[in-house]
Amino acid sequence: MQRVRFTAAAAGALLILALTGCGSTKGSDMTIESSPWGTMPDGTTVEKFTLANGRGMEVDIVTYGGIVTAIRVPDAKGTVGDVVLGFDSLDGYLAGHPYFGALVGRYGNRIAKGQFTLDGVTYDLAVNNGENHLHGGIVGFDKAVWAAEDVSTDTSVGLELTHVSPDGDEGYPGSLSVTVTYTLTQDNELAIDYRAQTDRATVVNLTNHSYFNLSGAGNGDILGHEIAIDADRYTPVDEGLIPTGELAPVAGTPLDFRTPKTIGANIAADNEQIIRGGGYDHNFVLAEDTRTVPESAATVFDPASGRVMEVLTTEPGVQFYTGNFLDGTLTGKGGNVYGKRFGFCLETQHFPDSPNKPEFPSTVLRPGNTYSSRTIYRFSIR
Questions:
Q1: 228-246: per-residue pLDDT in tens?
Q2: Where are the domains of the chain?
Q3: Euclidean distance between CA atoms 290 and 336, whole angstroms
Q4: Nearest Cα to Cα of residue 193 among 178, 182, 209, 204
Q5: Is residue 272 annotated as part of the catalytic site, yes or no?
Q6: Which of 209, 225, 282, 350 is catalytic?
Q7: Does domain 14-381 have CATH number 2.70.98.10?
Q8: Looking at 149, 160, 310, 347, which residue is catalytic?
């Protein structure tokens, strides 16, 4: 095993991606390897880390944006394939992309008109999505080069990434220290552990923005994937995709996934919410607030490959997005062109625009407290 250490401060919310159904025997061939993966315009070196558990599962992570550039898992025939969209080199990400695999912060999803008021003070954020703030702004966490440290143990391989967002970064108050730890275990669990602390009251909503295609990245659209979402309510949006504040029932709408159905079954329905999103781009309500242990959020099955992905989380919401803005202009890994709906996202989160919606679960973080959450993406075979 190659061990590489970089200076990093501590801080954790845990996102676990677990692969099951491929045998239960623990192996001893777990490795983490690093190599230079490119250079930023200012000369900063970007590193790539490959975590392997010796059971056919590998994950590639780069320090630019903390991006998961590949997740390789077996299908029902035992053939290993990469199930997340992305690029073969750093240049593809630097040229601009829709957050493929990136760590998103300080605030995942949208904040209306790039503005919120906290403790009587109004803060103006960077506006980068029409008149709204999206995914942390113009230079969010997805564009930072994170410090990295190997935190492997005898039973797992782990990579800890750290970043400090200074006071005023993209308009946010307070200096925010963030740690994200990716851990791959002998039991086929990949953990992404987020934790954040601040020296001044602020708002925080962190997530990972991987685009999945369980048939393999670039292998057509995801409309034939079957999905179930464990939510009986969602947050309807206005024309700018900002929640109205309502928690509406999914019953009787195309957003009812309580019983499994294909992603494509109602994606073109004559429904105001579907029309506004250009498909699915909605937050589903899983709970009234954070939970202490991960609970079921969604399950996706791809009949073509036999792969199954389950999502469990402590977060109160999950954003289901169906790659509506992919338009064939991006050429990804292996020369594959990413067309419309070639990937889907299940971003566990607090609700969009929560800083302006006091009725939503709070995203306020104060000095002395710690932000944390845990999500599980579990892969298996059917």
A1: 999 999 999 999 999 999 9
A2: 14-381
A3: 38
A4: 182
A5: no
A6: 209
A7: yes
A8: 347
